[in-house]
Amino acid sequence: MDIIIVEEGGFCFGVRRALEMANDAISRAELSATLGPLIHNPQVVEELYQQGVRVVEDISELKAGDTVLLRTHGCSPDVHDQAAKRGVTVLDATCPFVRRAQREAKRLSDEGWQVLILGEPEHPEARSIREHTDGRAAIVGGTQDLANVQLRDGVAVVCQTTQRIDNLNALVSALLPQVAILTISNTICDATTQRQDASLALAAQVDVMIVIGGYHSANTTRLAQICSEVNSRTYHIERAHELQPQWLNGADRVGITAGASTPESAIEDVHNVLKQIAGEERLS
Questions:
Q1: Catalytic residues, which ones?
Q2: What is the pTM of this model?
Q3: Are residues 202 and 183 in the same domain?
Q4: Which domain holds residue 71?
Protein backbone atom coordinates (compact mmCIF):
# COMPACT_ATOMS: atom_id res chain seq x y z
CA MET A 1 0.00 0.00 0.00
CA ASP A 2 1.33 3.41 -1.00
CA ILE A 3 0.99 6.20 1.58
CA ILE A 4 1.26 9.74 0.22
CA ILE A 5 1.51 12.82 2.44
CA VAL A 6 0.54 16.26 1.12
CA GLU A 7 3.61 18.49 1.28
CA GLU A 8 1.52 21.52 2.23
CA GLY A 9 0.07 19.81 5.35
CA GLY A 10 0.85 20.66 8.97
CA PHE A 11 1.65 23.91 10.73
CA CYS A 12 1.12 27.11 8.78
CA PHE A 13 3.20 30.24 9.27
CA GLY A 14 0.80 31.83 11.75
CA VAL A 15 0.62 28.73 13.96
CA ARG A 16 4.37 28.17 13.86
CA ARG A 17 4.94 31.80 14.83
CA ALA A 18 2.49 31.54 17.75
CA LEU A 19 4.14 28.39 19.10
CA GLU A 20 7.58 29.96 18.83
CA MET A 21 6.30 32.92 20.85
CA ALA A 22 4.80 30.56 23.44
CA ASN A 23 7.95 28.46 23.76
CA ASP A 24 10.14 31.54 24.04
CA ALA A 25 7.98 32.96 26.83
CA ILE A 26 7.85 29.59 28.61
CA SER A 27 11.66 29.31 28.46
CA ARG A 28 11.84 32.64 30.29
CA ALA A 29 9.11 31.59 32.76
CA GLU A 30 7.02 34.52 31.55
CA LEU A 31 3.80 32.91 30.32
CA SER A 32 0.78 32.39 32.57
CA ALA A 33 -2.05 31.71 30.13
CA THR A 34 -3.45 31.98 26.64
CA LEU A 35 -6.64 33.91 25.94
CA GLY A 36 -8.70 31.07 24.52
CA PRO A 37 -6.97 27.98 23.09
CA LEU A 38 -3.85 29.23 21.31
CA ILE A 39 -4.71 27.06 18.29
CA HIS A 40 -7.47 24.55 17.57
CA ASN A 41 -5.44 21.45 18.35
CA PRO A 42 -6.03 19.52 21.60
CA GLN A 43 -2.55 17.95 21.70
CA VAL A 44 -0.83 21.32 21.55
CA VAL A 45 -3.16 22.83 24.17
CA GLU A 46 -2.48 19.84 26.44
CA GLU A 47 1.29 20.23 26.01
CA LEU A 48 1.09 23.91 26.95
CA TYR A 49 -1.00 23.05 30.01
CA GLN A 50 1.60 20.52 31.12
CA GLN A 51 4.11 23.36 31.02
CA GLY A 52 1.97 25.51 33.29
CA VAL A 53 0.12 27.53 30.66
CA ARG A 54 -3.60 27.52 31.30
CA VAL A 55 -6.43 28.67 29.04
CA VAL A 56 -8.57 31.61 30.16
CA GLU A 57 -11.59 33.03 28.37
CA ASP A 58 -11.47 36.53 29.84
CA ILE A 59 -8.79 38.94 31.04
CA SER A 60 -10.66 39.19 34.36
CA GLU A 61 -9.38 35.69 35.17
CA LEU A 62 -5.82 37.04 35.37
CA LYS A 63 -4.05 39.07 38.02
CA ALA A 64 -1.39 41.78 38.06
CA GLY A 65 1.97 40.39 36.99
CA ASP A 66 0.53 37.66 34.79
CA THR A 67 1.46 37.36 31.11
CA VAL A 68 -1.13 36.29 28.57
CA LEU A 69 -0.61 35.19 24.97
CA LEU A 70 -3.38 36.17 22.55
CA ARG A 71 -4.58 33.34 20.32
CA THR A 72 -3.81 33.11 16.61
CA HIS A 73 -7.47 33.82 15.79
CA GLY A 74 -7.26 37.35 17.19
CA CYS A 75 -9.44 39.07 19.76
CA SER A 76 -11.37 42.21 20.53
CA PRO A 77 -9.30 45.42 20.21
CA ASP A 78 -10.16 46.44 23.78
CA VAL A 79 -8.34 43.44 25.27
CA HIS A 80 -5.10 45.41 25.48
CA ASP A 81 -6.80 48.15 27.51
CA GLN A 82 -8.42 45.59 29.81
CA ALA A 83 -5.06 43.92 30.38
CA ALA A 84 -3.30 47.22 31.06
CA LYS A 85 -5.88 48.14 33.72
CA ARG A 86 -5.24 44.83 35.51
CA GLY A 87 -1.46 45.00 35.21
CA VAL A 88 -1.35 42.02 32.84
CA THR A 89 1.36 41.81 30.17
CA VAL A 90 0.10 40.93 26.68
CA LEU A 91 1.96 38.97 24.02
CA ASP A 92 0.05 39.10 20.74
CA ALA A 93 0.17 35.92 18.63
CA THR A 94 -2.62 37.00 16.28
CA CYS A 95 -1.82 35.59 12.84
CA PRO A 96 -0.62 38.40 10.55
CA PHE A 97 -3.16 37.30 7.93
CA VAL A 98 -5.96 37.54 10.49
CA ARG A 99 -4.69 40.98 11.49
CA ARG A 100 -4.88 42.04 7.84
CA ALA A 101 -8.53 40.94 7.72
CA GLN A 102 -9.23 42.86 10.92
CA ARG A 103 -7.64 46.02 9.51
CA GLU A 104 -9.54 45.72 6.23
CA ALA A 105 -12.87 45.25 7.99
CA LYS A 106 -12.22 48.26 10.23
CA ARG A 107 -11.10 50.45 7.32
CA LEU A 108 -14.10 49.61 5.18
CA SER A 109 -16.53 50.03 8.06
CA ASP A 110 -15.00 53.40 8.99
CA GLU A 111 -15.40 54.49 5.37
CA GLY A 112 -19.13 53.83 5.59
CA TRP A 113 -19.41 50.51 3.78
CA GLN A 114 -21.81 47.84 4.98
CA VAL A 115 -19.26 45.13 5.82
CA LEU A 116 -20.10 41.46 5.42
CA ILE A 117 -17.63 38.95 6.84
CA LEU A 118 -17.68 35.63 5.01
CA GLY A 119 -17.05 33.22 7.86
CA GLU A 120 -18.47 31.02 10.57
CA PRO A 121 -20.56 33.09 13.02
CA GLU A 122 -19.30 31.23 16.11
CA HIS A 123 -15.66 31.02 15.07
CA PRO A 124 -13.30 33.18 17.20
CA GLU A 125 -11.52 34.56 14.14
CA ALA A 126 -14.72 35.74 12.46
CA ARG A 127 -15.89 37.25 15.75
CA SER A 128 -12.57 39.06 16.24
CA ILE A 129 -12.83 40.57 12.76
CA ARG A 130 -16.34 41.79 13.55
CA GLU A 131 -15.22 43.25 16.87
CA HIS A 132 -12.72 45.44 15.00
CA THR A 133 -15.68 47.14 13.32
CA ASP A 134 -17.23 47.94 16.72
CA GLY A 135 -19.79 45.25 15.98
CA ARG A 136 -21.14 46.98 12.88
CA ALA A 137 -20.22 44.20 10.44
CA ALA A 138 -22.36 41.10 9.88
CA ILE A 139 -20.95 37.57 9.67
CA VAL A 140 -22.48 35.44 6.91
CA GLY A 141 -21.71 31.77 6.39
CA GLY A 142 -22.62 31.90 2.72
CA THR A 143 -25.33 32.90 0.28
CA GLN A 144 -27.99 31.20 2.42
CA ASP A 145 -27.54 33.87 5.11
CA LEU A 146 -28.16 36.87 2.84
CA ALA A 147 -31.91 36.53 3.40
CA ASN A 148 -31.29 37.61 7.00
CA VAL A 149 -29.40 40.79 6.04
CA GLN A 150 -30.98 44.09 4.99
CA LEU A 151 -28.53 45.07 2.26
CA ARG A 152 -27.58 48.68 1.63
CA ASP A 153 -26.36 50.23 -1.63
CA GLY A 154 -22.67 49.97 -0.77
CA VAL A 155 -21.49 46.56 0.46
CA ALA A 156 -17.95 45.39 1.21
CA VAL A 157 -16.90 41.77 1.75
CA VAL A 158 -13.95 40.50 3.78
CA CYS A 159 -13.21 36.86 4.56
CA GLN A 160 -12.28 34.66 7.46
CA THR A 161 -8.79 33.57 6.38
CA THR A 162 -9.65 29.86 6.15
CA GLN A 163 -12.62 30.26 3.81
CA ARG A 164 -12.82 28.55 0.41
CA ILE A 165 -12.45 30.72 -2.68
CA ASP A 166 -15.51 28.92 -4.09
CA ASN A 167 -17.59 30.27 -1.21
CA LEU A 168 -16.34 33.80 -1.87
CA ASN A 169 -17.14 33.52 -5.57
CA ALA A 170 -20.65 32.27 -4.78
CA LEU A 171 -21.28 35.11 -2.33
CA VAL A 172 -20.07 37.73 -4.80
CA SER A 173 -22.29 36.30 -7.55
CA ALA A 174 -25.31 36.43 -5.24
CA LEU A 175 -24.59 40.01 -4.13
CA LEU A 176 -23.95 41.57 -7.54
CA PRO A 177 -27.62 41.74 -8.62
CA GLN A 178 -28.69 43.07 -5.20
CA VAL A 179 -26.37 46.03 -4.50
CA ALA A 180 -25.35 49.17 -6.35
CA ILE A 181 -21.68 49.13 -5.34
CA LEU A 182 -19.73 46.07 -4.23
CA THR A 183 -16.10 45.96 -3.09
CA ILE A 184 -14.23 42.76 -2.28
CA SER A 185 -11.24 42.35 -0.01
CA ASN A 186 -10.00 38.80 -0.51
CA THR A 187 -8.42 38.12 2.87
CA ILE A 188 -8.30 34.35 2.41
CA CYS A 189 -4.82 33.12 3.36
CA ASP A 190 -2.76 31.97 0.36
CA ALA A 191 -1.41 29.04 2.36
CA THR A 192 -4.97 27.91 3.07
CA THR A 193 -5.84 27.94 -0.61
CA GLN A 194 -2.66 26.04 -1.54
CA ARG A 195 -3.33 23.42 1.14
CA GLN A 196 -6.92 22.99 -0.04
CA ASP A 197 -5.92 22.68 -3.70
CA ALA A 198 -3.16 20.17 -2.97
CA SER A 199 -5.41 18.09 -0.71
CA LEU A 200 -8.21 18.08 -3.27
CA ALA A 201 -5.83 16.94 -6.01
CA LEU A 202 -4.47 14.11 -3.88
CA ALA A 203 -7.91 12.99 -2.68
CA ALA A 204 -8.92 12.48 -6.30
CA GLN A 205 -5.94 10.19 -6.90
CA VAL A 206 -6.09 7.85 -3.89
CA ASP A 207 -8.46 5.18 -2.62
CA VAL A 208 -8.66 6.53 0.94
CA MET A 209 -7.97 10.04 2.27
CA ILE A 210 -7.07 10.73 5.90
CA VAL A 211 -7.44 14.30 7.18
CA ILE A 212 -5.70 15.00 10.51
CA GLY A 213 -6.56 17.86 12.83
CA GLY A 214 -8.72 19.13 15.67
CA TYR A 215 -12.45 18.60 15.36
CA HIS A 216 -12.92 22.26 16.33
CA SER A 217 -10.46 23.44 13.68
CA ALA A 218 -12.31 25.30 10.91
CA ASN A 219 -9.58 24.81 8.33
CA THR A 220 -9.26 21.07 9.07
CA THR A 221 -13.01 20.55 8.90
CA ARG A 222 -13.05 22.40 5.58
CA LEU A 223 -10.23 20.18 4.28
CA ALA A 224 -12.29 17.11 5.13
CA GLN A 225 -15.31 18.57 3.35
CA ILE A 226 -13.28 19.40 0.25
CA CYS A 227 -11.68 15.96 0.09
CA SER A 228 -14.98 14.17 0.62
CA GLU A 229 -16.40 15.95 -2.43
CA VAL A 230 -14.10 13.88 -4.66
CA ASN A 231 -13.44 10.88 -2.42
CA SER A 232 -16.24 9.32 -0.37
CA ARG A 233 -13.66 7.37 1.64
CA THR A 234 -12.40 10.48 3.44
CA TYR A 235 -11.91 10.29 7.22
CA HIS A 236 -11.25 13.19 9.61
CA ILE A 237 -9.36 12.18 12.76
CA GLU A 238 -7.55 13.99 15.56
CA ARG A 239 -5.17 11.23 16.61
CA ALA A 240 -3.64 8.08 15.16
CA HIS A 241 -5.46 5.69 17.51
CA GLU A 242 -8.74 6.65 15.82
CA LEU A 243 -7.70 4.92 12.59
CA GLN A 244 -9.86 1.89 11.77
CA PRO A 245 -8.21 -0.93 9.77
CA GLN A 246 -11.45 -1.61 7.88
CA TRP A 247 -11.26 1.89 6.36
CA LEU A 248 -8.35 0.60 4.29
CA ASN A 249 -9.99 -2.55 2.93
CA GLY A 250 -8.98 -2.94 -0.71
CA ALA A 251 -7.00 0.30 -0.73
CA ASP A 252 -3.79 0.45 -2.76
CA ARG A 253 -3.13 4.18 -2.22
CA VAL A 254 -3.83 6.23 0.90
CA GLY A 255 -3.44 9.99 1.13
CA ILE A 256 -2.72 12.08 4.22
CA THR A 257 -3.31 15.77 4.71
CA ALA A 258 -3.48 17.88 7.86
CA GLY A 259 -4.89 21.15 9.09
CA ALA A 260 -2.82 24.26 9.73
CA SER A 261 -2.73 23.62 13.48
CA THR A 262 -1.73 19.94 13.29
CA PRO A 263 1.75 19.16 14.68
CA GLU A 264 4.23 17.13 12.64
CA SER A 265 4.26 14.49 15.38
CA ALA A 266 0.56 13.79 14.79
CA ILE A 267 1.17 13.32 11.07
CA GLU A 268 4.10 10.99 11.78
CA ASP A 269 1.99 8.95 14.23
CA VAL A 270 -0.75 8.46 11.63
CA HIS A 271 1.81 7.56 8.98
CA ASN A 272 3.38 4.94 11.26
CA VAL A 273 0.04 3.38 12.20
CA LEU A 274 -0.95 3.18 8.54
CA LYS A 275 2.32 1.42 7.74
CA GLN A 276 1.69 -0.98 10.62
CA ILE A 277 -1.83 -1.75 9.35
CA ALA A 278 -0.48 -2.26 5.83
CA GLY A 279 2.18 -4.63 7.14
CA GLU A 280 -0.38 -6.67 9.06
CA GLU A 281 -2.52 -6.94 5.92
CA ARG A 282 0.44 -8.36 3.98
CA LEU A 283 1.04 -10.97 6.66
CA SER A 284 -2.61 -12.07 6.81
A1: 125
A2: 0.87
A3: no
A4: 13-95
Range of weakest confidence among 91-95, 163-167, 190-194: 190-194
CA distance 149 to 117: 12
- pLDDT bucket at 280, cuts 50 / 70 / 90: low
* Residue predicted with more confidence, 117 or 217: 117
Q: How far apart are CA 6 and CA 33, in angstroms?
A: 33
> Which of 153, 188, 223 is the endpoint of a domain?
188
**89 and 103 housed in the same domain:** no
- List the beta bridge partners of residue 5: 256
* Residue 149 in this model has a pLDDT that exceeds 70: yes
For residues 196 and 177, membership in a common domain is answered with: no
Buried b (16+ CB within 10 A) or exposed e, 241-276: eebeeebbeebeebbbbbbbbbbeebbebbbebbee
Distances (CA, A) of 93 to 85, 90, 226, 281, 284: 20, 9, 28, 45, 49
Q: Taking a C-beta distance cutoff of 8 angstroms, is the pair 172, 142 a contact?
A: no
The 3-class SS string of the chain reads CEEEECCCCCCCHHHHHHHHHHHHHHHCCCCCEEECCCCCCHHHHHHHHHCCCEEECCHHHCCCCCEEEECCCCCCCCHHHHHHHHCCEEEECCCHHHHHHHHHHHHHHHCCCEEEEECCCCCHHHHHHHHCCCCCCEEECCHHHHHHCCCCCEEEEEECCCCCHHHHHHHHHHHCCCCCEEEEECCCCHHHHHHHHHHHHHHCCCCEEEEECCCCCHHHHHHHHHHHHHCCCEEEECCHHHCCHHHHCCCCEEEEEECCCCCHHHHHHHHHHHHHHHHHHHHC
Q: Tell me how far apart the alpha carbons of residues 175 and 57 are, in angstroms, rounded to a whole number.
A: 36
User: What angle (nearest 5°) sits at the alpha carbon of residue 159, between those of residues 156 and 163?
Assistant: 145
**The total number of structural domains that make up the chain:** 3
